[in-house]
Amino acid sequence: MIVCFFPDEEAGMVHGSQWFVENRPDLFAGASEAIGEVGGFSLSINDDLRLYPIQTAEKGIKWLRLRAAMRAGHGSMIHKDNAVTEIAEAVTAIGRYQWPIRRTKTVDRFLDELSQAYGVDLVDSDIDVVLQRLGTLGMLVGATLQNTANPSMLEAGYKVNVIPTEASAHIDGRFLPGYETEFDETIRSLVADGIEIETVNSDIAIEAPFETTTFDLMASVLRQADPGARAVPYMISGGTDAKALTRLGIDCYGFSPLQMPADVDYWRLFHGVDERVPIDGLHFGVNVLHRFLMAC
């Protein structure tokens, strides 16, 4: 068994898991599967049923910088070649674009499990109806049904009466497994030819098999601790250290068990003010994880 705690996950993993995979792959010799964060937490359906999503897939990352370079000039003149205008139009086109729905194996299975749990058809229903029915959980599901590209930073100018030579914007792009090319081509089609597109950070999308003995073991130890537990595979819209380990041929799963109270919205706690978990839920998770590791 190999135990490793990586730094730098929130900052792109360059100095953490990526560095280890590129410089010390020998440390992971013989490893074929790994577990990490963002999975194994409970979603209460009723008193007798709690879903425990286990991460088996995650979207790829494509952070972009758009740059428009035009002629500088005085703000009182007419400027049809304004860098700020060009970058604003590009950002608006990207931010307003409606990405097509793309179904992947993991998300289809997750929706099927949710359909059975809620007793409603979520698989073939209108996507907007599905997301509304799921409440805040719909934020996660919606993001894993399509590529996304969100403008997040703008930079231009230094004085109100000076048209700047350059304007730039940053885009947080995420793509589904198998849809990176579609993402790249769509972004290029939305942005004027004169705007430069630079990739600031890029990482792969991953999808591990969930019909495995390891997944079954996770489901088993969860049921031992909670008879109402049902393990289900799911995809996260963000990224974890699993991306780096996957490059070594290791199948990665998000499994850090946590039992949440029924009235606590787990997803709203992420990166929020006073980010926290219940102590009882943490005790539950340690117990489940201990059983899992002892059974491996």
Overall description:
There is one protein chain. With 296 residues, this protein is an alpha+beta fold. It folds into 2 domains: 35-58 and 208-295, Zn peptidases (Aminopeptidase); 61-102 and 146-203, 2-Layer Sandwich (Alpha-Beta Plaits), CATH 3.30.70.360. Helix content is 32%, strand content 25%. It contains 9 helices and 12 strands. The protein has helices spanning 17-23, 83-96, 105-118, 127-134, 137-143, 180-190, 213-225, 242-246, 279-295, and strands at 33-36, 43-46, 49-58, 60-69, 73-74, 148-156, 162-163, 166-175, 196-203, 206-207, 229-236, 251-254. Strands 2, 3, 10 and 11 form a 4-stranded mixed beta sheet that branches. The protein has a 4-stranded antiparallel beta sheet with strand order 6-8-4-9. Helix 7 packs across helix 9 (279-295). It is globular, with a radius of gyration of 22 Å. The termini are close together.
CATH class of the largest domain: Alpha Beta
Helix content: 25-40%
- The SS-based structural class is alpha+beta
At the fold tier of CATH, the topology name of the largest domain is: Aminopeptidase
Give the averaged pLDDT, no decimals.
91
CATH architecture of the largest domain: 3-Layer(aba) Sandwich
Measured distance between first and last alpha carbons: 9 Å
The proportion of strand residues reads 15-25%
CATH superfamily of the largest domain: Zn peptidases
Uncertain runs with pLDDT below 50, 5 residues or more?
none
Q: How many β-strand runs? A: 12
> How would a textbook summarize the main sheet?
4 strands, mixed
The rounded Rg comes to: 22 Å
DSSP helical segment count:
9
**Element order, helices and strands?**
HEEEEEHHHHEEEHEEHEHEH
